[in-house]
Write a structure and sequence with these properties.
Layout (H helix, E strand, L loop, with lengths): L1 H18 L10 E7 L9 E5 H5 L3 E6 L8 E6 L1 H7 L6 E6 L4 E5 H7 L2 E3 L1 E2 L2 E2 L9 E3 L11 H4 L6 E6 L1
Parallel strand pairs: 1-11
Antiparallel strand pairs: 1-2, 3-4, 4-8, 5-6, 5-11, 7-10, 8-9
Length: about 170
């Protein structure tokens, strides 16, 4: 019986330590900060990511044409859901903010349904700020025709640098 209790307590301690694990410090320039209702941070408040940390997360490539170009391009980056998982996001509302303070809001179920990426790469080249970087939220409208409307394409925020979770 004592061994069973010790095993149960050990399992609970491991589960709690994984749920609120500190993230490694970024080694390069920070290109994304996540705050709000999250469990995993570097300082108890903010999760900061450099490009290498984002590249280590589950990612995808979308090959599509956006309304901002005449050509088809390939965009690569981490799944937004992978970023949310890495910070232990618990909230249901997300606000994504760009360098110029433009922001968009999403419900978590929208992210889970459509699996957007935060592209850092277009056609094999890193996105600069001038080219909609450091991160550009790309919705997979090539997979979901309903995403082709103005409402959804307006949510494809570029120069993305902050996420707040409520």
């Amino acid at each position: 019986m004592t061994q069973w209790i010790i095993a149960l307590l050990t399992t609970c301690m491991v589960a709690f330590s994984v749920a609120a694990a500190p993230l490694p410090q970024p080694e390069g320039p920070v290109i994304l900060s996540v705050t709000g209702n999250i469990q995993n941070t570097q300082d108890g408040k903010t999760a900061r990511f450099d490009l290498a940390q984002l590249q280590a997360l589950q990612s995808d490539t979308f090959t599509l044409q956006t309304r901002w170009s005449d050509d088809i391009h390939s965009y690569h980056g981490p799944l937004l859901s992978a970023v949310l998982d890495s910070v232990g996001a618990k909230g249901e509302r997300l606000r994504l903010t760009a360098l110029n303070d433009y922001s968009v809001e999403f419900d978590r179920h929208y992210i889970d349904k459509y699996e957007p990426i935060m592209a850092w790469n277009e056609d094999g080249k890193r996105l600069s700020v001038r080219e909609k970087g450091p991160l550009w939220l790309i919705l997979p409208h090539h997979k979901f025709p309903e995403l082709n409307g103005e409402l959804h394409t307006g949510r494809m925020i570029w120069q993305l640098t902050k996420i707040e979770i409520d």
